[in-house]
């Protein structure tokens, strides 16, 4: 009798638990879908997860594991390979896009989509940065910054500075013993972007700023919990310190130019202070600072990480390393005897090394997702994206799709022989009007570093089997601890 009663109680408790779980898992669906009326019938498959947190726990769990792709794989397993899934991410009902044509459409259709970055991200990067401003404001700022950062004349001018710093850094690292290779690369790329924007080479200032950027980036993909001890709280504090630093730099530069209006313009800060729109309006301090916060972050994080991964991939595949090295040796051999250092044309002619970089960008997918928001109801592939819903363009799924790239997780520069990627299948810098404005500068930095590394150095990792972490960006947990060995004195 007692056993039977216990069983009834157990079944009752279990039933209440199942019912409660069903109700909680349905809250977001009731709240966000019911108002759509019949349009909800044409939403992509998926689920909106738990109240408030949505699918964030499963996202963070996957990206803190050894298999970040398990997050999307779960959707594919449950709902099929539809390429579009409804979800609830970063505080908003969202549609995840994982197939090329839909990605291309979302990224290039400015009439239907606008930036949709989470409010928590905008608080960190800045509401007046490129990721938060309107199409017209973005077009104006991009016109201002594109040529001074990515133009042929600018790249030719920066080449010598990049080259000198790469040569000096490699020589220094070779004498340091154990180093965190990634950490040193990030310092190097940060020095370069600081010079371009602020003409600064202060080691102390750069190290302080770079530390704050590290904290900032850890908060970008974290849960937006502004409580001491959480990554997002630390990131907000870092943002505050960065803004204070840049505000003092802006104030000092304005004062210097007021006292001496004829001072020559020498960096991007001067350009930002001078730019006017068609009505004569200049950028205010908030706009300048947010552009600085964004550019200095994007301008060193991606370059440093991709350079590390390209180096690791080449070291892991000796046949690719030797072919890339032979190309660099041929460039030096064919150089006029009066020429000192690299010429931009030589960098442009690095055909094989370009494939190495492209393959690294594909395989690593530094920015695995970007955010858009539907301006109106949009139909893609028979599914409705409701007005106001976020769209997560999942680059990682595209770049690792075996139907597009056979054996996608294998590093193979030869796959690029004669390959012209179809629209939407290769998106390391995004696409459309908001393509990364510093893509050519980043590829130049990577190419120059690999040129000198391949000719004269080797990397010996101390922990080659070190596990990886994927947030905020993929990297070995030990930041690639190792030694740089000089192998040639040429």
UniProtKB/TrEMBL annotation:
It comes from the Eukaryota. This is Ent-kaurenoic acid oxidase. The lineage of its organism: Eukaryota, Viridiplantae, Streptophyta, Embryophyta, Tracheophyta. Its cofactor is heme. GO terms for biological process: gibberellin biosynthetic process. Pfam families: p450. Heme binds at residue 436. Keywords: Heme, Iron, Membrane, Metal-binding, Monooxygenase, Oxidoreductase, Transmembrane, Transmembrane helix. GO terms for cellular component: endoplasmic reticulum; membrane. The chain crosses the membrane at residues 6-31.
């Amino acid at each position: 009798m007692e056993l039977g009663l216990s069983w009834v109680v157990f079944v009752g408790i279990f039933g209440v638990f199942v019912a409660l779980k069903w109700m909680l898992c349905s809250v977001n669906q009731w709240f966000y879908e019911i108002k759509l009326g019949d349009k909800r019938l044409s939403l992509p498959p998926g689920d909106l997860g738990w109240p408030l947190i949505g699918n964030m726990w499963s996202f963070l769990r996957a990206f803190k594991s050894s298999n970040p792709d398990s997050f999307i794989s779960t959707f594919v397993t449950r709902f099929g390979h539809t390429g579009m899934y409804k979800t609830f991410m970063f505080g908003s009902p969202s549609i995840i896009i994982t197939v090329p044509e839909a990605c291309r459409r979302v990224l290039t259709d400015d009439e239907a989509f606008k930036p949709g970055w989470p409010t928590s991200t905008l608080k960190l990067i800045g509401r007046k940065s490129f990721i938060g401003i309107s199409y017209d404001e973005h077009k104006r700022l991009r016109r201002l910054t594109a040529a001074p950062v990515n133009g042929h004349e600018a790249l030719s001018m920066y080449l010598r500075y990049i080259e000198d710093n790469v040569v000096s850094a490699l020589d220094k690292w070779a004498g340091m013993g154990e180093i965190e290779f990634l950490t040193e690369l990030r310092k190097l790329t940060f020095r370069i972007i600081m010079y371009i924007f602020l003409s600064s080479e202060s080691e102390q200032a750069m190290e302080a700023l770079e530390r704050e950027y590290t904290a900032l980036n850890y908060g970008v993909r974290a849960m937006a919990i502004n409580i001491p001890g959480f990554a997002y709280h630390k990131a907000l504090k870092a943002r505050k310190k960065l803004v204070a630093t840049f505000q003092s730099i802006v104030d000092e530069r304005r004062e210097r130019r007021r006292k001496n209006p004829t001072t020559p313009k020498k960096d991007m800060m001067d350009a930002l202070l001078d730019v006017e729109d068609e009505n004569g309006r200049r950028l205010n301090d908030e706009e300048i600072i947010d552009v600085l916060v964004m550019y200095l972050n994007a301008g060193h994080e991606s370059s440093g990480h991709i350079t590390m991964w390209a180096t690791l991939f080449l070291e892991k595949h000796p046949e690719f390393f030797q072919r890339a090295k032979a190309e660099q040796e041929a460039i030096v051999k064919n150089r006029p005897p009066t020429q000192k250092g690299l010429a931009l044309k030589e960098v442009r002619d690095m055909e094989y090394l370009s494939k190495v970089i492209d393959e690294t960008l594909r395989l690593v997918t530094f920015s695995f997702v970007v955010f858009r928001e539907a301006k109106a109801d949009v139909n893609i592939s028979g599914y409705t994206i409701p007005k106001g819903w976020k769209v997560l363009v999942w680059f990682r799924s595209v770049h690792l799709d075996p139907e597009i790239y056979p054996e996608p997780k294998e590093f193979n520069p030869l796959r690029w022989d004669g390959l012209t990627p179809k629209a939407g299948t290769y998106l390391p810098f995004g696409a459309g009007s908001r393509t990364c404005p510093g893509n050519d500068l980043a590829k130049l930095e990577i190419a120059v570093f690999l040129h000198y590394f391949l000719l004269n150095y080797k990397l010996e990792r101390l922990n080659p089997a070190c596990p990886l972490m994927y947030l905020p960006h993929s990297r070995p947990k030990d930041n690639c601890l190792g030694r740089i060995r000089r192998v040639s004195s040429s």
